[in-house]
Amino acid sequence: MSATVPWASAAGAPVPAPAPSAVTDIPGVIARVSASVVAIVGKPEVKGNNRDNRFNLAHGTGIVVKADGWILTNAHVVKEMDNLTVITVDGKQYAGTVTNMDEESDLALVKIAATGLSPAKFAANYSIKVGETVVAIGTPISVSLRNSASAGIISGVDRSVSSTYRLIQTDASINPGNSGGPLVNLKGEVVGINSLKFVSIGIDNLSFAIPADTAQYVMQHFFTYGKVNRPYWGAELEESWAAVVGLPTKEPLRIIRVEPGSPAEKAGFQSGDVIYSVNQASFTTLVEFNELLKRYLPGQTVEIMVQSGGDLIKRKVTFGKQP
């Protein structure tokens, strides 16, 4: 391995090779991350003559997050999939069990009976920049193509594509089967979980990934609560026309419906109210509001700035558990 080969300095004296964390070339990144990437194969839950067809398989990609057999993937990869098999980079096969699933974030955990795996490193407090080089690793089209890599750039950040939370846009090639695999930076850190792409005539390389911070938020809840323990307040919000079409706006969100008996109703909120901030943190889109709610748990109380009946007031609401 290159880490054991001495490098020569200008004076001819050997110097240590760069540490793994200093890897900046794409081949080095792929070599470093591939051991943390697995293929996931199974039979889709279908009825009829195709049920026993051994070639009727569904597949995707997963990321090793704990050495003792914990795999992170997309919820849509493993939803309604039977007989899960997880294949590691060295070709070993393990029976997999879905332990946790959250369709709202499109993330799930799969457990296999394995030890000594290589967990991926997730980027922490990472500021993603548009134009930054990234690499996608996964299992496109066929299991025989597992651990295929493609490179591209970050095309956009804070994207909303009918999603609860923000997404990363990339032009790295993401094909069927890549879902659940890592999008990594040139430090070999996972910055996103490849999730979806737009497919149509005239559209090229328009793919999206779930940011690492959302993945870590969901995993932390999975391991702590067994599910994503989201706060519930029971008011349906509507964003402005400008926000819907993606234009910059300062227009606030409007309440269009309040659930009877919900925390929002108990706190005095009603349809037509306009909300500006939660604990002084402002937002103008539904995605920004949902991102803000990741800070809180059921049972916590927040102060919401609201315009109601022409008056700008503050109301306190205690979040409940999602019904």
From TrEMBL:
Q: Does the keyword tRNA processing apply?
A: no
Extract the PROSITE patterns matched here.
PDZ
One protein family per Pfam: Trypsin_2
> What processes does the entry annotate via GO biological process terms?
proteolysis
Domain of life of the source: Bacteria
Q: Which residues form the PDZ domain?
A: 234-295
Entry keywords, A to Z:
Hydrolase, Protease, Serine protease
Q: Name one GO molecular function term.
A: serine-type endopeptidase activity
Database matches in InterPro entries: PDZ, PDZ_sf, Peptidase_S1_PA, Peptidase_S1_PA_chymotrypsin, Peptidase_S1C
Q: Which family does it belong to?
A: Belongs to the peptidase S1C family.
- Name of the protein this chain belongs to: PDZ domain-containing protein
Q: Which organism is it from?
A: Brevibacillus nitrificans
